[in-house]
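Hi U.,

Before I forget, here's the chain from the pilot set. I'm dumping it here mostly so it's searchable later in email.
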Amino acid sequence: MTSSPRARSSRAKNFVGFVVGEVVYALDIHRVREILQPLPVVPLPHAPPVLLGVADHRGEVVPVLDLRRRFGLPPAADGDRRRKWIVVRAGTRGVALVVDAVTDVFGGEPVGSGALPALGAGDRERGIVGVQRHAGRMVFVLDVDQLAASALAAAEPSAGVAP
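Structure:
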């Protein structure tokens, strides 16, 4: 008996990997809507520094969250062609996460056993919910909702953004 391609894919390749700084991260593939080249961004007044602004993505106003800033890293070099946006589903809205590079789609195996150990004071801000092993490296799995919460709040229409 063979399983459907969708079932096999969800078991074998359940993460989208990407790099921010020197660290490899991943998101649940079921939360990823699209990976694309950066689009023009409209800055929002009084937005938190991690929110670059909003972009028109296929007719939807999408908040654009810079993960380098979110993780306290210096800005990337202008014109870095590897930079990508990962558009994720956060609740009923899309949010674009700016990353240094997308690596691959993969399946992983948990590192160690038990709960994720405390990794430092910034765990909550980073949104780390797990650690996987892939291609001989540790990959930190991020929670989309936790990452996107501040971007969604700042980009609400009441914040002065017209749909």
